[in-house]
Amino acid sequence: MKARSCDNQIKLFQSFKPINCLFFKTKFTFVDLFSGIGGFRIPLEELGGKSLGYSEIDKEAINVYKKNFISYLNSDEINLGDITTLNQFPFEVDILVGGVPCQPWSIAGKSGGFNDSRGRLWFDVIRLVENNKPKAFIFENVKGLTEPRHRKSFELIIHKLKNAGYEVKYQILNSYDSR
Predict the structure, then answer these.
(1) pLDDT of res. 10
(2) Active site residues
(3) Would the pTM of this model clear 0.85, i.e. be above it?
(4) Which residues contact 98 (CB under 8 A, 6 or more apart)?
(5) Domains located in the chain, CATH noted
(6) What are residue 99's DSSP bridge partners?
(7) Residue by residue, what is the 3-state secondary structure of 19-74?
């Protein structure tokens, strides 16, 4: 009788298939600045990364981000809030990533550069790099940041990141090539 009961229990557990339950060994940790709805997060998680926190100020984007990525499995992940108020993370992080607002550098925007408050967010990013010393960072922006009208600003950003002790490399990518 006991063997039969055990067999039934084994069959019960064999039919149980957890949904959305993925466990993997974390290869690195990251913080997602200007997280939006999570475009940077997806490939980093696919590569074995674990998000420790994110920074976003748009309420609708935060709601979408939480709906897509936050569950009971990672409920300890922190919404770090407004980047302009951050200095030191409450944890160590391997990689800092983010898509700094592009409107100040884009031909589609007003091209205000550092005269636009969104352009000055680069200084908040640099402060976070300096204060938290991640092993690496990945930041993306538009080609306009590297063009002659903004070249001095781009060189200043590179200079400040190098002065923080990092080797800085950049590459212009064409999204058309990623199809």
Answers:
(1) 47
(2) 102
(3) no
(4) 32, 33, 34, 35, 40, 55, 125, 138, 139, 140
(5) 38-69+77-178 (3.40.50.150)
(6) 140
(7) CCCCCCCCCEEEEEECCCCCCCHHHHHHCCEEEEEEECCCHHHHHHHHHHHCCHHH
